[in-house]
Design goal:
Blueprint (H helix, E strand, L loop, with lengths): L3 E5 L3 H13 L3 E5 L5 H8 L3 E5 L7 H11 L5 E5 L4 H9 L4 E4 L4 H24 L4 E3 L2 E4 L4 E4 L2 E4 L2 H11 L5 E3 H9 L4 H17 L7 E5 L3 E5 L3
Parallel strand pairs: 1-2, 1-3, 3-4, 4-5
Antiparallel strand pairs: 6-7, 7-8, 8-9, 10-12, 11-12
Helix pairs in contact: 4-8, 6-8
């Protein structure tokens, strides 16, 4: 079965090249020139991955990516943009992006990144399914299959990345999780930008466990993390 790609970009010449090349490589591509009614397109087309330009008319790519991520937490989103400042890249990941490709790019690079994201999602799903239905973390309960963390009478809906990272930590309780291996397992590489993105997610997870003192994520500088949980 062909993998489906939702592609949103308002540059007609580039868009035609990208769409036609991806279709020649066997992908099923739905192209949109702006961000209007994209959620309807996602619901009907059911893409395996989204390619979003950042500078779009009507609604910018960051906002669009964040909206998609809130509703479809496991759907990979690759941002395509000429914005290359570190803050722009970090904003992209914080807005729900799972990868970030800088324009101009080669089609070979784009296709490798697409396949990498699809493979990582499949691998992440297998890892999550292998974990128990419920994981007790002190007084908190993590439900991997539903991306939920029940803590202090509150249900926190985790993003796909948050659930993946917490799953890895739960598979390695009270031991050291190597930072480089964690980055490679979740993102496919340990690049600077992915590293910054990991910092954001670790900070969020710490905030979630703020009311559960028995659980802690300790950073071991230059090494990784120690996920401390009650035995």
């Amino acid at each position: 079965m062909k993998k489906k790609i939702l592609f949103v970009d308002d540059e007609p010449f580039l868009s035609r090249i990208v769409k036609e090349t991806l279709e020649l490589k066997g992908y099923d591509v739905l192209y949109k020139k702006d961000g209007t009614r994209i959620l309807d397109a996602v619901a009907s087309f059911e893409p395996d991955i989204c390619l979003l330009d950042v500078m779009l008319p009507h609604i910018d790519g960051y906002t669009l990516g964040s909206t998609i991520r809130n509703i479809y937490p496991t759907l990979p989103v690759i941002f395509l943009t000429a914005k290359t400042q570190t803050d722009d890249v970090v904003k992209g990941f914080s807005s729900g992006g799972t990868d970030y490709v800088k324009k101009p790019f080669s089609m070979e690079e784009l296709m490798v990144r697409i396949e990498n994201q699809i493979r990582l999602v499949a691998k992440g799903d297998e890892t999550t399914k292998a974990l128990a239905d419920k994981v007790m973390l002190g007084n908190a309960v993590f439900i991997p299959s539903r991306f939920e963390l029940h803590i202090a009478n509150e249900v926190i809906k985790l993003s796909h990345r948050e659930a993946q990272i917490l799953t890895v930590l739960c598979n390695n309780p009270n031991t050291v999780v190597d930072r480089k291996k964690l980055l490679t397992q979740i993102w496919g590489d340990d690049s600077f930008f992915n590293s910054r993105n990991l910092d954001v997610y670790i900070r969020k997870l710490r905030e979630y466990f703020a009311t559960e003192p028995a659980v802690s994520i300790v950073t071991l500088k230059g090494i990784g993390y120690h996920f401390s949980v009650p035995q």
